[in-house]
Design brief:
With 249 residues, the protein is mainly alpha-helical. Helices cover 63% and strands 3% of the residues. It starts with a helix and ends in a 6-residue tail after the last helix. This is Meiotic double-stranded break formation protein 1.
């Protein structure tokens, strides 16, 4: 009965448009609950059922695409649910090697821009996006479900960026600065999300190149020297917090 209900809810969502908040908000919340508040075997079955709904995945992609335009609007709560649900889908699919029927495209630059220039009263949305980004970093951007696509206006990567792909040096810099700015807001939930993302970023950099992972705290500078450098202790402090097992739940 539970799997049948999940199928019905996912089918209903697939028939909606991103403007149908009254239907989508409780539906997304129910789907997210189904992926977290049940036994591991039930979670895997639930994820398999939901991932089989191509219309649901297509809808999620459309909702996520509205993040920059709708971040400070009545749809903020729906955007939070969509990012968290996408992160959960990606984690469940990756951990369980579940079949993917429909990929979900996310523009990486748009994600970083949403974190670098957050609008007012969007701490919860920033935390949800960070949860998604942490999942992507932990998977080394290898998700079979989520395809992180470059911006159409993005220049060709520099030779030194190859080892960090799909991230570039400028994008790593943008992310670090964005996390630094979010940390100073002193919102407990957002701080936990930032630390979790910083931990995943450090692990990603170190896995791609131990030299980069070690030098990042000391070498990340603002572009073109127009502003002050990022404090060298930023990522070192994040490492200390991570050792203390401060994670975003």
């Amino acid at each position: 009965m539970a799997m049948k209900l999940l199928h019905q809810v996912s089918t209903l969502c697939g028939k909606c448009s991103p403007t149908d908040m009254d239907i989508l908000q409780p539906s997304f919340n129910f789907l997210y609950w189904s992926l977290h508040q049940t036994t591991p075997s039930s979670q895997k079955r639930a994820a398999a059922v939901l991932l089989s709904s191509t219309t649901l995945i297509q809808l999620l992609e459309k909702v996520l695409a509205l993040t920059l335009a709708e971040a400070d609007s009545p749809r903020t709560a729906l955007l939070c649910s969509a990012w968290l649900l996408t992160a959960s889908f990606s984690a469940q699919q990756h951990n369980g090697s579940l079949q993917v029927h429909q990929t979900l495209s996310v523009e990486l630059d748009q994600v970083l821009k949403a974190l670098s220039f957050p609008k007012k009263k969007t701490a919860l949305l920033s935390a949800a996006i960070l949860c998604f980004l942490r999942t992507a970093l932990q998977q080394s951007f290898s998700s079979a479900l989520v395809a992180l696509v470059p911006s159409e206006a993005q220049p060709l990567p520099a030779p030194e960026d190859t080892v960090l792909a799909p991230l570039g040096t400028s994008q790593v810099l943008s992310l670090v600065i964005g996390l630094q700015n979010l940390l100073v807001q002193k919102d407990p939930l957002l701080s936990h999300a930032c630390v979790g993302c910083l931990e995943a970023l450090l692990d990603y950099l170190h896995a791609r190149s131990p030299d980069i992972g070690r030098s990042s705290p000391h070498s990340l500078m603002f572009p073109r020297g127009r502003l002050k450098p990022v404090p060298a202790t930023l990522l070192s402090q994040a490492s200390i917090l991570c050792v203390m097992n401060i994670h975003f739940v």
